[in-house]
């Protein structure tokens, strides 16, 4: 049985034991993603968007079923032009790499991108989201997607957080992982950096004394600071905020889900900038 043959620049792989496939599967572990500085993203549209945004693709894996699809061929040509590897695989390999029964027809391995805080340049009414020790990949993906949807400018991951480049988080972002710059730092670094930030830092807290609907969000730039799922914002980070906002609750729930609370806050903060007519949207 042929396990690997090469025609033109496309490798055909049908064996799960192929080292390239093993390497791709190993990206399910953070230590391997970090060592290689890469991550995996699934779906043709999302991969095309990523290339349009200038992300670097290392490997493009597509299913045999996609052969002859002009968009896949164009994406393969772009991958080749940037020095990436193109692999045609069977269903079994696609399922194994994506760990899914119904995998997407195309998977890309991209280089990770982290921004240095020295490039952070918030101005005007810019909004950023800071997340304290976020744990849940689904929450992080949902927050990245929501932050992108409202036109936030980036995300700051504070402390030890779940990896934004895990397959689960990337899936939950629905492509927004490619749209928002990511910064990360420890809580101590944030506290130090914070002294030089001249916008508003709005923390959210179950003990917050300010109703989130009463804050003047036009006085930007704004960093919305959300607390850890289990513990909320610790005192030192809460004390570093200019205001601590609370979303009122009426029922028996102790708190809102972190991603939901972030969505409620972001839509209130960006309310005056958002319109159904995209031509009127203000950044
Ligand atoms: N046990 C945690 C606590 O006591 O803070 C609950 C944390 S809650 C699940 C996770 C985060 O969501 C909070 O730190 C806060 O940022 C935000 N959050 C949830 N409900 C909120 C509310 N009603 N008002 C303001 N923030 C809220």
Which blocks of ≥5 consecutive residues have pLDDT under 50? 1-8
Taking the alpha carbons of the first and last residues, their distance comes to: 56 Å
Strand content: 15-25%
Q: How many separate helices? A: 10
Explain what you see.
The chain has 283 residues and is α/β, with parallel strands linked by helices. It has two domains: 108 residues, 60s Ribosomal Protein L30, Chain: A, CATH 3.30.1330.30; 157 residues, Alpha/beta knot (3-Layer(aba) Sandwich). Helices cover 32% and strands 22% of the residues. It has ten helices and 13 strands. The strands form two sheets. It has a seven-stranded parallel β-sheet with strand order 9-8-7-12-10-13-11. Strands 1-2-5-4-6-3 form a six-stranded mixed β-sheet. It is elongated and about 60 Å long. GO terms for molecular function: RNA binding; RNA methyltransferase activity. Keywords: Methyltransferase, Transferase. This is RNA methyltransferase, TrmH family.
Can you give me a brief rundown of this structure?
The protein has 283 residues and is α/β, with parallel strands linked by helices. The protein contains 10 helices and 13 strands. The chain folds into 2 domains: 108 residues, 60s Ribosomal Protein L30, Chain: A (2-Layer Sandwich); 157 residues, Alpha/beta knot (3-Layer(aba) Sandwich), CATH 3.40.1280.10.
């Amino acid at each position: 049985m042929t396990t690997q043959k090469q025609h033109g620049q496309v490798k055909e792989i049908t064996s799960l034991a192929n080292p390239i496939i093993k390497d791709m599967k190993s990206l399910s572990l953070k230590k391997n993603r970090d060592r290689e500085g890469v991550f995996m993203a699934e779906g043709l549209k999302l991969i095309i968007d990523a290339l349009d945004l200038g992300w670097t693709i290392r490997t493009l894996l597509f299913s045999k079923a996609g052969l002859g699809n002009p968009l896949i061929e164009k994406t393969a040509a772009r991958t080749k032009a940037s020095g990436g590897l193109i692999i045609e695989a069977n269903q079994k390999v696609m399922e194994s790499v994506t760990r899914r029964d119904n995998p997407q027809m195309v998977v890309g391995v991209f280089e990770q991108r982290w921004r240095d805080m020295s490039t952070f340049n918030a101005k005007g009414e810019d909004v950023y989201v800071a997340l304290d020790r976020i744990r849940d990949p689904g929450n992080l993906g949902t927050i990245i997607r929501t932050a992108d949807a409202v036109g936030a400018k980036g995300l700051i991951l504070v402390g030890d957080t779940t990896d934004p480049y895990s397959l689960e988080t990337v899936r939950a972002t629905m492509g927004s992982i490619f749209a928002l710059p990511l910064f990360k730092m420890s809580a101590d670094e944030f506290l130090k950096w914070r002294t030089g930030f001249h916008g508003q830092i709005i923390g959210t807290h179950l003990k917050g004394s300010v109703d989130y609907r009463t804050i003047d969000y036009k006085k930007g730039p704004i960093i919305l600071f959300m607390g850890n799922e289990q513990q909320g914002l610790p005192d030192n980070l809460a004390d570093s905020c200019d205001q601590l906002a609370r979303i009122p609750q009426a029922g028996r729930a102790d708190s809102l889900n972190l991603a939901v609370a972030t969505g409620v806050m972001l839509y209130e903060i960006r309310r005056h900038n958002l319109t159904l007519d995209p031509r009127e949207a203000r950044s």
